[in-house]
Amino acid sequence: MEPLSGAAAAAAAAAGGGGASRPPSFASQTNALLRKNLIFQKRNRKATIRLIIVPIYLCVLLSVLQRVINNLLDKPKYKCGCMCVDVNGTGPCQNVCGIQYSTLDQAGSCPIPNPPEWPALLQVPHLEYRATQDSSESCRKSQSCPAAIPFTGANETLSTTVMQNMFTDSPLSNLSDNASISGILLGTDMPGTSTGFIEPAFISDVPIYVLQSECKSRNSVTLRTTIDAINVQKEIKCVQGLPLWRNSSRTINEETFKGYRKEKIGKGISEVAMAYDFQDSNEKRFNVLALYNSTYQNISYVPMPFGLLRVSRSLNAVSNAYLQFLQGQGSGIKMLLEFTKEMPKQATRLTIDFSSLIGPLFFEWVVALLFPVMLTYLVYEKQHKLRTMMKMHGLGNGPYWIIYYAYFLILSTVYLVLFVIFGALIGLNFFKTNDYGIQFVFFFSFINLQIVLSFLAATFFSKVNTAQAIAYLYIFGSGLMAGSLIRNFLEGGKFPRHWITVLEIIPAFSLYRGLCGLSQYAIRASETGNPGMRWSDLNDHTNGMRDVMIIIIVEWLVLLPVAYYFDYAASVGNSSGLLSIIKCLLRKNTTWRRIAVNEVADNDVHVEMEKLDIIKERETVDQVLQQRNSGYAVVCDDLKKVYHGKDGNPDKYAVRGLSLALPYGECLGILGPNGAGKSSFISMMIGFSKPTSGNAFVQDFSIHTDMENIYNSMGVCPQIDMLWEMLTGREHLQFYGRLKSLTGSALDLAVEESLRSVNLLLGGAADKQVRKYSGGMKRRLSVAISLIGDAKVVYMDEPSTGLDPASRKSLWTAVKQAKQDRAIILTTHSMEEAEVLCDRLCIMVDGRLQCIGRPKELIARYGGYYVLTMTTSSEFEREVEDLVLKLSPDARKVYHLSGTQKYELSKQQVRIADVFMAVENLKRRVEVQAWGLADTTMEDVFVKVATGAQSSDELS
């Protein structure tokens, strides 16, 4: 065993001294990961800046669109109308402005100190939608379908009498002024989407209906009246009002719901004018529930200055009918509703708050855009096994969560603060009018929930592309669903509020509901000049902001431990459920005890005599398992791994009952053909996969239950390089060195010596980003990472793959120097590497251990022969064969091609001198082109053992 050089010895002392053998503290892990992430973000700062300024771009875009819209609206078409009027009738006209001179587009900007009065109307269904009792629908052809008015109540007689009192049968010719109009039941089928400070039915071509108990022969008349000095001439048509008794209010609801332009009762669409439930009304108590069709108006759940809801006439009509019931029809006592009108208003400028109008859905997408960014970051490290690599070098879940959660929180906070501040600065009402404290609490609580959702979702993905695709589909799809469902449910006013709260459990829905509330308050502020949402408004349950905040915060607190559990379960490869994880966390460290696992039965039955060296190794394992502190670093006890077949394929037995005992200071080489189970064995030992049965102990810790403790003193050089493309080689070693509790000068010395040992100091390679490394340089860096610090057990899976001869020799020197106080398990296909580095070698074939021992012992055991190679002309092949059989009767031909033959000669039957003499004699008779005599090599042993094992498997 070669001694350490002076510098390497100093590095080893620095790595092993000063308490470095202790597990890294929480603070050292956090410090290492924080420094690494700061470096990574510094290199990735351009992408981060581009992400952060995305909201600024969007705010600028909204501002530009808002200015374009405002410029379009700042035209005479949308300004209050004016006319040149001769006011006094004596002179030239004067320019007078007002609503009476304005179109519908202009009226919205006019000052209205005294709003006009108009008769109250009832909402009547369109002719084609009215409910009808005529199955032939003949009334539709004659345009005489009645306006159905279902009613119910506890007292049918009283209810029927009151309903009959609702209609008057006075001739239509008596309608001459507003007073006469207020005494009858007028209606319109024009939707009241907006008023323009006047009933739209009186300034349109749509006729007005009067509901009577029976229409006479003359069922239409022209009404001339005055509304705010405007002469109005309207056609009034008679429509029969048809009261329909129903047994319950529930029946009325079912009929009207089914009949609303969807299903038919008989053959007619069942839509009614109004409906009543008189409940427990009697002569001394008037208790009525008025039902109306809310789909004819467009008023959101926050009160807005537009939209016409025609329910006042419905309430007045039933109240007047009840009064007639009490006083009698001839009493002359009436409860009249003479007119309705809007509240006065000042002159305004017609504007559309574009940002608030499109805000909820648009801003939801802006906020949710961070979700796929964070998810991609987490899944990238999972896909490239960087998270596992860090964990194998001692990084715990706590530091990982703290650093990444803090980074995501800072990134999200800066992102949204810039969004809100810049949006307010450029004048977007959505941000400017609403209280900044409410916005901060709402957005801050949601981004915390979004971070937790990212961690939770990352456990279910292993590929970045899949995670990105599903994440973007989720944010766009959920946004559209929320915009469709939440807005319709809120504006309809009929969807139960508690079910809306249930929907808000979905994060996208809660975000949309909160944004919708902020948007509506911003629109109201721009329309009325009132302030936006304030803290006092949270007491108003109609806006839903308080409920949304409570749901988001509670959901965040609930999902935080859930996400941490799933993340932990994924990191340890455990998928057996919550109960097993809790048991694993509470269980004390188990040392030197076997775990009872169901044995795996092979499909094949092998009849084979086990080798003495394998039996001896198993006996050593059994002895070690009976004692503590035996000085062995690694003990494998009947380890097995089975990959279960899918789609009808048979199970694959990767490792079949492997038992090994490895002391400190020894390098064990594992040889075997491709598919022998070497990498599967390494994967189980480093925590990549769980054994199917059996157990293994590393420094007295079980790989089933104590991988967290094993990681603290383990180094790994995996078969595939797991490196950050944007970090340098030096930064990689500094990070993993800090994870091994190295600090200060000890860390610098260890990093420098590690780089020198693998030839990464030449040409400034140590300070180049890994993405500029060749495959061989990455491989050397992976080896250096596995050896840095005081890793007592090191696994190297084909460490010299892809290296040139000079780099390979240098790498071998570094490994030999590092193995003095460590246990190293190495897999390789290079026989030369195995002989140079390994104290003991074992050969695996088809998951089984075929032999184990020191290289010379294996050569002596399996290589008790010389290899004679001779090349002659084809006609002399027989003479060569006769010569060999005379030298060694038991000689075995192992190669024959075009005159070249290779034989194995038993050392017990032949002497080297005899071979030379025989060949010299042969040369006198025939032409020998080339010949050679060689001792057995490790490669010959490997080929012999592997071929023999495979032949045995085929025979069995």
From TrEMBL:
PROSITE patterns linked: ABC_TRANSPORTER_1, ABC_TRANSPORTER_2
Record field: transmembrane: 51-69, 357-380, 400-428, 440-461, 467-490, 548-566
InterPro entries recorded: AAA+_ATPase, ABC2_TM, ABC_transporter-like_ATP-bd, ABC_transporter-like_CS, ABCA, P-loop_NTPase
Xref: Pfam families: ABC2_membrane_3 (PF12698), ABC_tran (PF00005), ABCA12_C (PF24526)
SMART domains linked to this entry: AAA (SM00382)
Molecular functions per Gene Ontology: ABC-type transporter activity; ATP binding; ATP hydrolysis activity; ATPase-coupled transmembrane transporter activity; lipid transporter activity
UniProt entry keywords in alphabetical sequence: ATP-binding, Membrane, Nucleotide-binding, Transmembrane, Transmembrane helix
One Gene Ontology cellular component: membrane
UniProt subcellular location: Membrane
ABC transporter domain ranges (all copies): 634-871
Topology term for the membrane: Multi-pass membrane protein
Lineage: superkingdom: Eukaryota
GO terms under biological process: lipid transport
Keyword Oxidoreductase: no
Family that this chain belongs to: Belongs to the ABC transporter superfamily. ABCA family. CPR flippase (TC 3.A.1.211) subfamily.
Protein name as it appears in the record: ABC transporter domain-containing protein
Organism: Triticum aestivum (Wheat)
Lineage of origin: Eukaryota, Viridiplantae, Streptophyta, Embryophyta, Tracheophyta
